Amino acid sequence: MQSDSALRIVWIYPDLLSTYGDQGNVLILEQRAQRRGIPVETFHVRSADPVPEGGDIYLIGGGEDRPQILAAERLRRDGGLHRAIARGASLLAVCAGYQIMGTTFGGEEGQPVDGIGLIDIASGRGEGRAVGELAGETDSALGLPTLTGFENHMGVTRLGPGVRPLARTTIGTGNGDGTEGCYTGRIVGTYLHGPALARNPGLADLLLTWAVGAQLPPIDDSWFERLREERLTAVLPR
Ligand code: GLN
């Protein structure tokens, strides 16, 4: 890690986990920080390399079962993400990346595989594959508008006490119990691709606010509003 003044964004294991535009989440954070005059340094950490501990926001994406298992093993052995979170860093974990953060998740045959135990969630195989658009009303404490995104997963996730659902689903499956994703401390987990932060810029700003420790000035969001309107109109009854 180089400079102390820049916001440090760490993109974990792009060689294993990055489906359905998940890398776009990194671009959105970079852009929304830079448009507010915040300098950014981004680190792409491949799975053979150690996860640096000095980042401000960490991101991890979704993927298939085998790379997911490999990523869980490497993250557990490495320990860098645990240390970064203990220091107060923020994290956005998507789909396979989200499941990995918990105590257990379902492998290729549905067998239980150990997660990295960063948050109190447990995942397993659901009845069938959840594929398509998801919409949901975000937890009122977050003050965010309707959640929108695309999901494609077999897993279902149970949240332990102290971990709150990110949203209540109106369309789609999410965690499989009428809720979608979770948040706890400065960690956000979600099943949403699409990429999630392009479709939910408010969530991007929440992560940035946690990282910089201050409210951010508003920016012109008309492009994002058009994208959200188009996606939500396609799925929600009006
Ligand atoms: N392999 C996991 C599942 O099917 C995650 C899939 C994904 O990341 N899109 O539940």
UniProtKB/TrEMBL annotation:
InterPro entries the record matches: Class_I_gatase-like, CobQ_GATase1, GATase_3, Lipid_II_synth_GatD
Domain CobB/CobQ-like glutamine amidotransferase: from-to ranges: 8-200
Active-site feature positions: C95, H193
Entry binding sites for substrate: R129
UniProt-recorded Gene Ontology molecular function terms: carbon-nitrogen ligase activity on lipid II; glutaminase activity
UniProt-listed Enzyme Commission number(s): 6.3.5.13, 3.5.1.2
Keyword tags: Cell shape, Cell wall biogenesis/degradation, Glutamine amidotransferase, Hydrolase, Ligase, Peptidoglycan synthesis
Protein's pathway: Cell wall biogenesis; peptidoglycan biosynthesis
Coiled coil (UniProt feature): none
Source taxon at top rank: Bacteria
Catalytic activity from the UniProt record: L-glutamine + H2O = L-glutamate + NH4(+); beta-D-GlcNAc-(1->4)-Mur2Ac(oyl-L-Ala-gamma-D-Glu-L-Lys-D-Ala-D-Ala)-di-trans,octa-cis-undecaprenyl diphosphate + L-glutamine + ATP + H2O = beta-D-GlcNAc-(1->4)-Mur2Ac(oyl-L-Ala-D-isoglutaminyl-L-Lys-D-Ala-D-Ala)-di-trans,octa-cis-undecaprenyl diphosphate + L-glutamate + ADP + phosphate + H(+)
Function in brief: The lipid II isoglutaminyl synthase complex catalyzes the formation of alpha-D-isoglutamine in the cell wall lipid II stem peptide. The GatD subunit catalyzes the hydrolysis of glutamine to glutamate and ammonia. The resulting ammonia molecule is channeled to the active site of MurT.
Similarity field: Belongs to the CobB/CobQ family. GatD subfamily.
PANTHER family linked to this entry: DETHIOBIOTIN SYNTHETASE (PTHR21343), LIPID II ISOGLUTAMINYL SYNTHASE (GLUTAMINE-HYDROLYZING) SUBUNIT GATD (PTHR21343:SF9)
Subunit organization: Forms a heterodimer with MurT.
UniProt protein name: Lipid II isoglutaminyl synthase (glutamine-hydrolyzing) subunit GatD
Protein encoded by which gene: gatD
